[in-house]
Amino acid sequence: MLTAGIDVGSTASKAVIFDGTIKGQAVIPTGWNPREAGLRVYQEALQDAGFAEEDVSIIVGTGYGRISLPFVEKRVTEITCHAKGAKYLFPLTKTVIDIGGQDSKVISINEDGSVADFVMNDKCAAGTGRFLQVMTGVLDITLEELGQMGLDVEPASINSMCTVFAESEIIGLLAQGVKKGAIASGIINAISRKLLSLTGRVPCNSEITFSGGVANNPAICQLLSVALGLDFNVPADPQIVGALGAAIIGCGQ
Ligand code: ADP
Asked: Which numeric CATH code is attached to 1-90+237-253?
């Protein structure tokens, strides 16, 4: 049975075509129209898989934009989908850390892949991909450079968790001549402090799987792992874990 999972996130839309294994996938920016983005990412994933719409038995939508998708048969929260997707990729997963565009979550999961508990930061951009994007803007570097520059460098102290205040702090540090590498390392430390405030609130047991767009960045993964004092599995395509989970749920698994 061929299924599709579509995850329309705040920043990126993802789709996976699945029949027990991943047949195709796509990631595109969500932009201003979640419905359009959901449809387009679905079509791109179908093309990647070499299938047509009539081959798909069921489409499951997830992500904040799932309500905007009139063509999906089922809608499931991204919490449930990330848990399913992570458990499929790393069957021993007990905890999922997901850092997306505008929220971050820690999900504690049961043996069968269902959600035992979760905690989520979606009230502000602190500790999210958006936080990183704003900071790279101030430093005039790419996300890849931010991770690389922060490796093996003593972090500058960035005290504010708030994106707006942290941005002002960084402007101040640059004015004092602090090196960008130290600031980059300090930015990752700020993210890890925010995550620690989440990991302290639900059982955070090994194995831990790291999902979401920020996990695309190997250097940031490495820095976060050291700062949090935790090892985690990083999927080859961490951004599609929610869409994969949705497609797996479509299979009735
Ligand atoms: P959402 O579902 O909320 O849209 P995603 O899980 O799709 O979020 O992740 C989107 C976020 O991931 C964006 O903020 C983007 O900047 C970030 N991101 C994507 N690729 C990278 C990368 N290589 N390094 C750091 N951040 C990244």
From this structure: 3.30.420.40
